[in-house]
Amino acid sequence: MEVNRFESIKEGTILLIDKPYDWTSFDVVGKLRSLIKKYTGEKSTKIGHAGTLDPLATGLLVICTGKATKRVMELTADNKEYIAKIKLGETTPSFDLETDVDAVYPFDHVNRELVETVLRTFSGRQLQEPPAFSAKYVNGKRAYEYARKGVDPKLEPVPIEIQSIELIGFDLPFLTIKIVCSKGTYIRALARDIGKALSTGAHLV
User: Quick one: what percent of the chain has pLDDT higher than 70?
Assistant: First the structure.
């Protein structure tokens, strides 16, 4: 039964994977490759993922295999929905918990009304500066390779669109927000920018 299932996956299908915490999207692809090889003997199955989740994010990762890899670009173009928990009052270089806190800021001036007002300013089309700790290429290297050495990769802002952004949890210093956005949107960068707009620091947790 397992052999038949993985033969079908090898030929081509779309898989909806619940990505575990602390796995990269590439880890998921690697695990799938090893399972296909184990059950079918195939060493070079085509596999692609429609979008990428950060290692510390969990949730839906769309994987295309075999003939279905032709649909990767189509699926990647779809809007994404995220629920993010943000901690106010401090920052980290990676804008999440992958790196240690590097600065702290007061946040006693922040209230729910201010947060809701600020969030409304993030709706629509805009330019967003990607995190230095990202997989974007700069001169043939990943941006995070520069960032880990303390070098600013100088990433150019990219156009994104936020269709909706909603405050669904307010328990200082934590905010929980729900976002529907275009491909290429970095939720870590959004957390950074929300912190700045609130005149404090912020990062994902």
Answer: 99
CATH H superfamily, domain 80-204: Pseudouridine synthase (3.30.2350.10)
Q: Determine the pLDDT at residue 54.
A: 94
Give the dihedral of Cα atoms 87, 79, 145, 197; nearest 10 deg: -40
Summarize pLDDT for 12-66 with one digit per residue, the tens: 999 999 999 999 999 999 999 999 999 999 888 999 999 999 999 999 999 999 9
Region 2-76: CATH code: 3.30.2350.10
* pLDDT in the model for residue 1: 53
Q: Confirm whether 54 is a catalytic residue.
A: yes
Tokens for 122, please give them: 């993030």
Residue from 54, 102, 171, 193 carrying the catalytic annotation: 54
Question: Any idea of the CA torsion for 29, 34, 36, 41, to the nearest 10 degrees?
Answer: 140
Q: End-to-end alpha-carbon separation of the chain, Å?
A: 40
Spans in the chain with pLDDT lower than 70: 1, 3
Q: What's the pTM value of the predicted model, to 2 decimals?
A: 0.92
Burial tier of 86 (Cβ tally within 10 Å: 0-12, 13-18, 19+): buried
Q: CATH 3.30.2350.10 in the chain: give the residue spans.
A: 2-76, 80-204
* Closest of 143, 128, 138 to residue 185, by C-alpha: 128
